[in-house]
Known about the structure:
Layout: H1 8-17, E1 30-33, E2 40-44, H2 49-66, H3 71-87, H4 89-100, H5 104-124, E3 132-133, E4 140-148, E5 151-155, H6 163-174, E6 178-182, H7 188-205, E7 214-216, H8 221-229, E8 235-239, H9 242-254, E9 258-262, E10 267-271, H10 277-289, E11 299-305, H11 306-319, H12 341-356, E12 360-362, E13 366-367, E14 376-377, E15 380-383, E16 399-405, H13 408-416, E17 420-421, E18 423-427, H14 431-438, E19 447-450, E20 462-463, E21 466-467, E22 474-475, E23 484-492
Parallel strand pairs: 5-6, 5-8, 6-7, 8-9, 10-11, 10-18, 11-16, 15-16, 18-19
Antiparallel strand pairs: 1-2, 3-4, 4-23, 12-15, 13-14, 17-21, 20-22
Helix pairs in contact: 1-4, 2-8, 3-5, 3-7, 4-5, 4-7, 5-6, 10-11
The structure holds 2-aminohexanedioic acid (UN1).
Family: Belongs to the aldehyde dehydrogenase family.
Domain Aldehyde dehydrogenase: 30-486
Protein name: aldehyde dehydrogenase (NAD(+))
Amino acid sequence: MTSLPSAIADARALLARLGVDPAVLDGGSLAARSPVTGEVMARLREHTAGEAASAIETAHQAYLAWRKVPAPRRGELVRLLGEALRAAKTDLAALVTQEAGKVVSEGLGEVQEMIDICDYATGLSRQLFGLTLATERPSHRMMETWHPLGVVGVISAFNFPVAVWSWNAALALVCGDAVVWKPSEKTPLTALAVQALFEKARAQFGPDAPDGLSTLLIGGRAVGEVLVDHPKVPLVSATGSTAMGRQVGPRLAARFARALLELGGNNAAIVAPSADLDLALRGVAFAAMGTAGQRCTTLRRLFVHDSVYDAFVPRLKAAYPTVPVGDPRASGVLVGPLIDKAAFDAMQEALDQARAAGGEVTGGSRSDVAGPEAFYVAPALVEIDHQADIVRHETFAPILYVMRYTDLADAIAAQNDVAQGLSSSIFTLNVREAEQFVSTEGSDCGIANVNIGPSGAEIGGAFGGEKETGGGREAGSDSWKAYMRRATNTINYGTTLPLAQGVTFDV
Ligand code: UN1
C-alpha cells in the first residue's frame, strides 16, 4: 500500500495521450513499476529472441532504403521528431517522473535534452562532411567520404530512460542508419511513449522513411544478446554498468562490430584554497544529491583543501538534511526515490563498508514516503581519510565521500587513481590550478570542468569517458563519426598511372 496518490491512472492517461495503445499494457511478464509509489503500472509482453532477430532484419531493410535518402531530408525526420517532443514535453516528462522517479525539473530537463539533440542533429544533417586531402600524385584527387553504417543497436539504462536513446537515435538517423532500441527493463513505458512519438513523426514525414527504421525491443538479457550478436548490427551503443560493458564489449569485438560504451563513473571534484565556496557548495550539492545520486556523472568523491575544509565541509553537511526528499511529482522536492530495493540495499551495504573503513557517515537513512515498496533515502555524506575500496567502487546512490588534501598534484593523482574515468571538476579561482587540472597532466576523465560540478553536461560536447567508463563518445562535437563509415577515395583524372611512394611496375 502506498500512502501517496497512485501512479497507475496518471501513467496510463499519460501513455494514452502520448499515443501508446492501451492494449499493450496488460497481460505480459515484464512488470513496469513506479519507484515513486512502488506500484506495478503495467505488465508488458516481452519480445522473444526470434522476434528480436526479425526486427533487426526489418531494420536492415529499412537502412538499405534510408541510406539513399539525402542527409538533409533525413534531418527533416529528426526535426519532426523534435517538434513532436516539444509538443509532448510536459506529458513525457511526467511519465519520466512516474517511471524513473526524477523530480519535475529533471524530468523536463531530460526531455529538453532530447529536443536539443534533435535540433543539433537537424543542423548536422547538412554538415556530414569529409576532407579533401593533399595527394602526392599529379592529376589525382584524394578525399574522404562518410557513409551510413547500418543498423545501430541502442541499449539504455533506467536513469536516463529516454534522453540516451535520443542522443544515439537522432545522430544515427541523420547519418542514414536504422535504430533498434532495447531500453532498461526498469523503464519500458517511457520507451513505448518515445516509440509512439517517433512513429507520429515518421507518418508526418512520408513514405521515404521506411517501416522499422527505428524499433523497440521490450525484454531483458535475451533480447539484448540478440542485438549484441547479430551480424547485421555493425554498432551497439550501450549505456549501463561496467559489468554489463565487460560482457558486451568482448562479444562485439569477437565479430569485429563497433562498441560505443558509456559505463560506470566515479566522478570527483576538487575544492581548492581559492574556490568561491558559495558557488562550490551549490555545484557540489546538485552534482552529489541531484537525481538521487543516480547519474553516471553524479559526484561521488570530493577532495577539499586543508585550508578551506573547516569553512566548507560543515556548511555542506548542514545543507544535506535541508534538501527536500519526497514525492518527485510534488513541487519543491529536490530528491526523489531510488529506482528499487536493490539500489537501496547496495547503498546501505556501501555505507556499512564505509563505516568499517573508518568513515563518518551523515544521512543515508530510509524515509517512509510511500510505504514498503518505495525506496526513499536521505542523501549521505561520508568523511573519510583515504580512498578505501568502497570509495573506489561506483555505488549508484547518493553517497558523497569527502577527503582532505594539501597538495594539488596529490589530489589530482588521487582523483585519477580509480578504475573509472567519466567526469571531474575543480573549484578554483587560480588560473594555474584550473589550467593544470584540464591539462595533459590533469584529470584523466572524458569530462573535466572548472567551477561547475561534474554532472549536468549539455549535448553540444562529446559525452563519455575513459578507462572502465568504456571510451565511447555520444552527442555533440564529432561524435557522429561513430555512426558512419569512412571511405578514402583516390581519383586519377590524368592519363598516366604514377604509383605512390615512387614504386615502378611497368608491364
Ligand atoms: C547519465 O548519467 O547516464 O551530464 C548521463 C549529465 C547528463 C547525462 C548523464 N546530461 O548529467
